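haha ok so turns out i had the wrong file open the whole time. this is the CORRECT one, sorry everyone. sequence first:
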Amino acid sequence: IEKFPGAESAATETLFKKNKNVLFFGIFSSDGKTLTPRRTIYNSDLLDEHELNHSIINQATAQYSKNFAQSSFGLIKIQNISSTFHFPVIGISFPFTNSGKGILVCYLKLDKFLETFQSTGATQTFLVNSDGRVLAHPDIRLIEQNVRFSDLPIFKSMKESKVNSGLTRYKDKSGEWFMGSFKKIPNADVG
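then structure:
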């Protein structure tokens, strides 16, 4: 899109028709601390459906730019940005190189993704980022409130572990015992 600006409308139509949960994507320059937009594309149909406009996307980008800017150092960053939208949304940034340092940022509505995080019996599955912020959980309120699970023993075990997966027995704050397992997703800094 950056090399062929005239192709933007065709690419946008294809992207948003095939990926109805994509709210936005943009290419940014970064100094490692802030983002400067080079090209931004909004899913106007999805924004209209939720009675939102471009300014909410720009607000989210400004609010989380410091986190997303870390992608200029080669990191993939995933951030819960639901509190800005009041429905489950994650922002993903990753390095994008085309004539210099760049970052691609994409905002995804989580409807379909959350279907895989439903509780069954005694099992509860959730996804957190490196700060312990809930990215996906069967209880949507926890996502929308941008809750942090960094105090959970299973999260601490995952953060401290030298291996990408593990199983541990732990006691929560109320004294109840749990069996927990984790699986890190290495390049995305989530688990």
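Residues 91 and 107 are 4 Å apart (CA to CA).
again sry for the mixup
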